[in-house]
Specification:
It contains one helix and three strands, in the order ββαβ. A three-stranded mixed sheet has the order 1-2-3, with helices on one face.
Length: 75
């Protein structure tokens, strides 16, 4: 995952499958430690954009067809 390890706010990532009948979609899930809720103190739109751009870069570089990106907060 080329772009993801270079972003210090991405803790880990993985792939999930979403299956609906015969349809299936590959989802790239990205876990981040930044505040994702704009209404909360500590939210930084620039950092959120960096995480999003890194995930999009990984989607483009992947040999598999990734259909969706899901960015989730650290647990």
């Amino acid at each position: 995952m080329a772009d993801l390890p270079n972003n210090p706010h991405i803790l880990r990532s993985w792939h999930e499958w979403e299956i609906d009948g015969r349809e299936r979609r590959l989802i790239l899930v990205v876990e981040t430690d930044i505040e994702m809720r704009p209404e909360m103190d500590g939210f930084d739109a620039r950092l959120m954009d960096e995480v999003r751009e890194a995930a999009i870069g990984e989607m483009r570089d992947s040999p598999n067809a990734i259909h969706l990106i899901r960015i989730v907060p650290a647990q």
